[in-house]
Each structure stands twice: as C-alpha cells, then as structure tokens.
Here is the input.
Amino acid sequence: MYNVCDVVSDNALSALVQQVKAHVKNGSSGVGFAVHNDNSLDQLSSSCMRHLLELRSKTEKPFTTATMFDSMLSYLQDISTIQHDFEQHAMPVASKANAQMVWNALICRMFDDATMQQVQEWLYISLYCLSRLIKTHSSEMGHLLQGFTELTNYEDDASCEDTESDVFAIYEQISRDSNAMSSFVSAFIHSCKLLVEIRALAYLQITIKQAVDRIIEDKVQSHAQQWEVPCLEAICAEMSNIATMLDALLPPPTQSHLKYVEDQVYTQFAQLRVHELFGIIIDYPDSKAAIDDLRLCVQRHRSMYKIAYSLRASIQERLLHPGATTSDILTQYISAIRCLRLLDPSSTMLEIVARPIREYLRTRDNTVSCIVQDMVSEESGLFEDMANQTSDTSAVNGRAEGVVFDEDCSQPWEPLPVEAKTIYKTAQRRDADVLSLLVSIYDTQDIFVDEFEAYLAKQLLNSVDFDTEREIKQVEMMKLRFGAEALERCEVMLKDVADSKRIWHNANTNEADNAYSTLVISRQFWQQQQQQTATNEQFVLPPQMSYVRDRFAKTFEALRPARKLDWRDSQSLLDICIEVQGRSIKVNDVRPAQAAVLFAFQETPRMSLHEVAQVMESSEDFVLPRVRFWQTRGVLREAGNVFETVEVSPDDVADDNRAQDMVSNSDEEEEEEAGPPEADAQSEALRMHFNYIVGMLTNFGPLPLDRIHSMLGMFIPGDTTTPDELRAFLTQMVREDQLDMSGGMYKLK
Here is the structure.
C-alpha cells in the first residue's frame, strides 16, 4: 500500500461520495435501501473530515517524552470516536460496504506525511523500549505480554547501545517501577488495537517497516567492533520477540513481520561485518566469532562474490601500497587465507581476494626473506604449522610446487562452484595449506631453499658455542616441506659445525686456548662464502693472535692432511677487554683487523696513519676505518697528523671528537673503502643514510625496524642493506646517544 493522503483532496473525496451514491441508486451492490437525502453522505463525510483535520492539527507537535504513549492513545481514541459517529450517521443513508469505502478515503486523507512520521517515531520508541524491557525485565514482561507473544530468552554480552540518547532516557522513565511499565505496555497494546479498528493499518505498512528497520539498525550497530563473541544469534532472538508481537498486534496483509525481520537482520548484519571485514582479518584469530556470524549470513543470502570483490578493493586501497611493510602484507594475507576458508570452504572467495596480493608480493624484493623468517621464527603461525606436520607430509615431495593439502578443514565437502572454473588456475591451490599458498606465489620453490640456506649460514657463522639444536630442528622441518634432496647443502653445513666442534676440542689443550673457537666450513657448500671473493686487502696479524691461529692450523692439518685452511677474517669476531689508565673497556664483536690496529698501538702509543699501515703491512685506505673505529669509542684520538692512545677521561674525548666532527670524517673514508662486507664498514656506510632516518623519525614519529628498512628502500633505490645490518647500525646510534629505542620503536633523542 502507498500513502496517497496528499493526493486525495476535498473535491476528490466529494467525487468519491457521489460515486458511492450513484452506485447505490443503480442497485449494483445487490443491497436495496432508500436514500432519504442525496446530499446526506456528502455532508456527513465533509463534516467528518473537518473533525479529523482539526484533531490532526492539535497533535502536530512531536512526541518527545514518556507521555507520548498516552498522547498517541488519546489521539487514536478520538479518531475511533469519530469513526463510530460516522458509521452511526452513515447507516441510514448508505450500506455498510459503501460507508467503509468513504471512511477508508477519510483515513487515507487523515494520515498524511507528518502524521505518518509521528506514528513511525511512536512505534520506533515503543519497540525500542519493549526490546530493552524484555531483556532487562523478562519475567514481568512475559506476564504483561501473555497471550500476545511467547518471549525467547537470550544472552547478549556484546551489545553496546547508546545510553546517552533521548530514547534511552524515555526507557529509563518507564523502567523505574512496575506501574509505569504496566501502563506503557497497556497503552501500546490498546493503541495497536485502535490502529486495526480504525482501519489505518493498510496505509501504515511502510511506516511499520521503517520503524522496524530503525530498530534493527540500532541493534546491529550496537554490535559494531564486537568481534570476540557471537552476536547474530542474540540479535535474531531479540528481534524475533518484537516481530512475533507485531504479528499478533499489527498483522500484515501478506508477508509476516517475523520473516521480514529475519531477512533484514541478516542483511544489515552482513553489511556491517563486510564493512568491518578488513579489521576482522587483522584481528584473527581473536575475531573468529565474527567470521562465524558472517558465514551464516553468506549461507543465507549467497553473497560471497559481492563480499569477495568488496574485500579485494579494500585490501588494494589500504594494504597494497609502499607505506605497508612486506611483513605486514604477509601477515594480513595469512589471516585472510584462514578467515576466507572459514567463510567459503570452496576457497573461491580466497582466490578472488588473493590474486592482487600475490601479484603485488612478487614485486617486493624481500618477500622471500620475510616468508623464510616466518617459517623459522618460533613465534609465528607458519612455524607452528610446520612443527605440527607429520611424517605423512613427506609425500608432498612428488607434488608440483610443494603443495600440501589442508586436512584440518572441518567443513563438509562441497563441489567447486561453476563460477570458480574461470577463477582457479590450478585445482591443487584450492585445498593447499597456508605455507603452500605462500610458496606458490613464485613459480619455483628453489628460491625459498636458497634463502633458507643463506639464513642458516648466517646463523651458524654467528654461533660461537657450536650449539645447533635449533638449526637442526629447522632443517628437519624444511626437509618435510621441500624434500631432503633440496636441503643437502644445509646438511653439510650442520656437519661442518659438528666436525669443527670435535676438532676444536682436540686442538685446545689448555684453558687459554678455550677462549678461541674456530668454525671450519666446506666452501663449495656454503652459498654465502661462494659469493665472496678472496681479493680482500691483506694485513699481518699480531703475534698474540697468529700464535693461537697457527697452532690450530697445525692440529687441523694433522687431522685432515688433504685439506688446508683459508682464514676468513671478514667473518671472525673477538671480544676484547682494554685497560687504559686503570679503567677497563670491554668491546664485543671486534673484527681481527680492528684488533690488529689496537695491538699496534699497544707497542707504540703514538703513530701516524702511514706507520700503522706499515706495521700491519697494509694500505692506509684499509687501516683508516679501523683506526676510526677505536677513535669513536674513546680509545684513540687524533692529534694533528698522528693518532695516539687516550690519556684523559672518555667524556673529554667524546667532546673533542664531536668538536672535530670525527664521525663525519669516518663516513667519508669508509665510503671509499673496498673490501668484504664487514660489520664496521657497513656501519660507517650506513651513516650516509642517517639523514634519511632522522627525517623519517621527525615526520612519522617512533618507527619499528622493518618500517625504517622498507622506507629506506623507497628513498634510496638500489640500497642493499639487510634488516640485520640496519639493526646493528641503529643499535650503534643508540649507544652513541643519537637515538632512543623503547618497545622495539626507534625515536629521536
């Protein structure tokens, strides 16, 4: 039905009355009676219309307080009184059917837009108060509504309704005592009966639905951002009580209110959760309850394609851009895989959403390294997935792309949708597990094996105690994923460490030797060492260091006569304790070349750069960065054209160094150096980028390491700094009191 009250004018109403009288005169109604006065019905209807319009003009003030319920009841009672008078006076001049036709026209004119709006506001506030009273006073409301509806009990801990609204204030007035509550319920029931009695219900169907829609919207929006607990069932139970009551008091002509309410709840709730889906995926698995609710909506309305394309657009806008780190993108992608497979076991939605993510990840240089880091990090979900693999997973080695099928899916099997045939490129990817989907971003798994080999080599080279328990576990898990043959190099690396530990025990015969450990590696099996050339600048070790090294070499050659050691000073590390005028300075992770400079000054406390180079039998370009290394730590200082050991306090040395801008000079010399990627050289080279880092922290505030690394790659194309090298440099800046670090975030002092 449509509201045509603005269309029915006084002339049209008079014309309708004339048609009724003509209809009666012709006798076509089948009911014969004498019309005593042709103008009686016309005059009666006009008089009735005037009374109705006068009544409407008196009630045009909006209802805003708890008294609105009594006001609406009084308003409807007055209309009912006019109706009874009209029917009583119409009885002598027209049949009952004709009188009803005229009355319907009068009511149509009576309920104009303003009146409809008032009725909608009254009904909305009434339903709001009823729903809250049913939830908070279930036993009392069950007694008051007995005979009209059977209330459904439910629990809803996630609702967060607006307690500051005017409607809530009205509810509080009603819920203060049982008398006010009983009066409200009685007024509402009586008003509904009067709406049916005055035959206004046919013109109010849209108004009723609009009021119900507002209630549903309030209930749904009150559960926004509530992802930890299920919400849909509570909303449906709450609204079913309202719908059942409306079906009893204001019966619709066609579809029941209960069916309409169920459809609207699922529709509006699905719209809310789809709008929040990006955030729900970020919070997974804490938001699993929200995914379960959304799955029920998807199953009811079959709207998974619309949801998938909406989520894909949101991800492209909010995630796939240079400001997001690769680690964040991968984390979101992994959560999306798990969430969308709960929503759609056929994985069709996942394929729609994942395609732009996979394409974008292929353009990132550090995607493979980030995936491998997640695979070996014990805090990540990928590590748990790999650790939970059984020996049956080894059967994957014969499958393309290392695909492992997900056997944890508890959803019943469903055939692949017809639309999915044009979406999927391979049938395997539909049931592949998370790690297999990540590996399949690229056409081959070899790049992941190579990256893991580089990671393993770095971990083993940095280990000084030959403890490889963690690395052995990682290799075994990778073998289950990629096969034993692909991890042969890693097996050799672990064997080299075990052999080195045995040789080290045989070579070290006294306590002093135990402070010196040596890792002997097979160069052809260590990828990182193959990429490094042997053209490094040479220097002579001091006797204190060469003595221990030569003795170990003799022991090794005695045990392995067919092999010869090639020392790699760029990978060697020392811990040194320096005594300067009664104070002790401990420096860790010192390179042999840096230690050789210190030993040279131990023999001669004052030397020029040329003299230091002669002692070490090396070039000045090679020696200068090593001298600067000790200068920045307050052990050496520059006096004219010579360097000397410090004889004053470290604070004075630091002030003197800052005054002469020694760190800046070290940067310029380090930039000209050629050689292996040593830690100190890399740290000095990174000082060139420090201005970029300062700019980032100034503009964006505290930043984590991965964000700084990602933005450096944007600002300095071709930069090859690894996250570990950047971390070491930032740690040095913290030690030099130029940066602060708190909670994994770096910030300016």
